[in-house]
Specification:
Four Helix Bundle (Hemerythrin (Met), subunit A), 5% strand, two-stranded antiparallel sheet, mainly alpha
């Protein structure tokens, strides 16, 4: 639920004990309630920003002078005068709008940016000391920008991403955009390294994991017979129709056959290692016939060995495989195992058939063609 910070001066006056600001949900103005004649409606969400701008325009038509600002700060700091606090905050609400405009299109609604900026502005009178001879606007700028930035980092993504990682993503994205605008091309890794100061490995990792916008499966794309058609229903029907298509099953069987053939090459190389190392490796990556990748702790418990020793033994195999002509890594193998399990379902096949391809010369694709010819 979104919130907007409404100044106290345009809410009902209920006494000095009232809080400095009233917080009202934005959807409070978003619901349509018909009156008795059925023609009047309350203002919608699109009108909230216009109403808010009109109201703060009435609060301060002229800026506070340095003398007025210092006098109000002394009243609030020394005597706790809430009216002085209100005056200080209300006269700087327009500055929040200006700062929030620079943070649009970064995952948060503009009204949410204003709300977070107002929270930062309300912290400023408490944080600023009377001994500092700066204007309140200069001191408030940092607090407003900090609150907006923290809100973007915390709430702009469906999946929580660490603040440090988001800062790196943002820096790399800005460098890419700058090169495209100025040079008309995408920068190289060395150019990004020079501009950002990050190591090459860090840059590659960031570019491979740049966050993308998420879309809800419940998002309505169209209406059919007065019923909403969502993205999830479209994808479900699309996958269901493809699975019923014989040509699609044949394609899936062909892909499964190729994926299992790649794993068969690795299994052949494993035979040059001792049986104990082979068993550890197969248990770890689901090559024991189950296609279920296990954790190091599960493998260690199964073999009555320590977790660290299990890791070292499996790592020895990976270190020796490149010298045998196998350049893939553990992430590739885990991805292939997951891909095989998905293809088994799509190809209407079985785990046993996939094991036959890996551990023998069995060919799922040829079997499927033969079965169709016989039918």
């Amino acid at each position: 639920m979104n919130l907007i910070c409404f100044p106290k001066s345009w809410t009902s006056n209920r006494g000095d004990e009232e809080e400095k600001y009233e917080f009202a949900p934005t959807n409070a103005l978003n619901t349509s309630e018909n009156s008795e004649d059925g023609n009047k409606e309350r203002p919608g969400y699109s009108n909230i920003l216009r109403i808010y701008l009109n109201e703060i325009g009435k609060l301060g038509r002229h800026k506070l002078t340095r003398h007025e600002e210092r006098a109000l700060m002394r009243l609030y700091k020394n005597h706790g005068d809430t009216r002085a606090f209100d005056e200080l905050v209300n006269r700087h609400l327009k500055m929040v709008i200006s700062i929030a405009k620079g943070h649009r299109n970064r995952g948060l609604d503009f009204l949410d940016l204003i709300q977070e900026g107002n929270i930062g502005l309300m912290k400023t009178p408490d944080k600023q000391s009377l001994s500092v001879n700066y204007r309140l606007s200069s001191y408030a700028y940092g607090w407003i920008k900090a609150e907006i930035g923290i809100a973007i980092l915390n709430f702009s993504h469906t999946i929580k991403i660490p603040v440090r990682a988001q800062e790196r993503f943002q820096k790399i994205t800005e460098i890419l955009a700058h090169f495209v605008l100025t040079e008309g091309r995408t920068p190289s890794i060395k150019e990004i390294q020079k501009a950002s100061g990050y190591p090459v490995k860090t840059i590659i990792n960031i570019m491979l994991n740049l966050p993308v916008d998420t879309i809800s499966l419940e998002e309505v794309v169209s209406w059919h017979d007065e019923e909403p058609l969502t993205i999830g229903s479209v994808l479900a029907s699309s996958v269901g129709n493809r699975q019923l298509d014989p040509e699609y099953r044949l394609l899936a069987r062909s892909e499964l056959n190729c994926a299992c053939a790649k794993i068969r090459e690795l299994v052949a190389l494993l035979k040059s290692f001792p049986d104990y190392f082979q068993n550890l490796f197969r248990l770890r990556y689901g090559l024991d016939g189950t296609f279920e990748v296990k954790t190091l702790q599960e493998v260690a418990d199964r073999c009555n060995r320590g977790r660290r020793m299990t890791y070292r033994n499996i790592a020895k195999i990976w270190r020796n495989l490149p010298s045998m002509g196998f350049e893939k890594n553990a992430l590739w193998l885990i991805g292939e195992i997951e891909r095989i399990t998905n293809l088994i379902e799509l190809a209407d096949s079985s785990v046993e058939e996939a094991n036959l391809v890996i551990f023998s010369n069995y060919d799922i694709e040829k079997r499927s063609f033969a079965s169709q010819a016989g039918s």
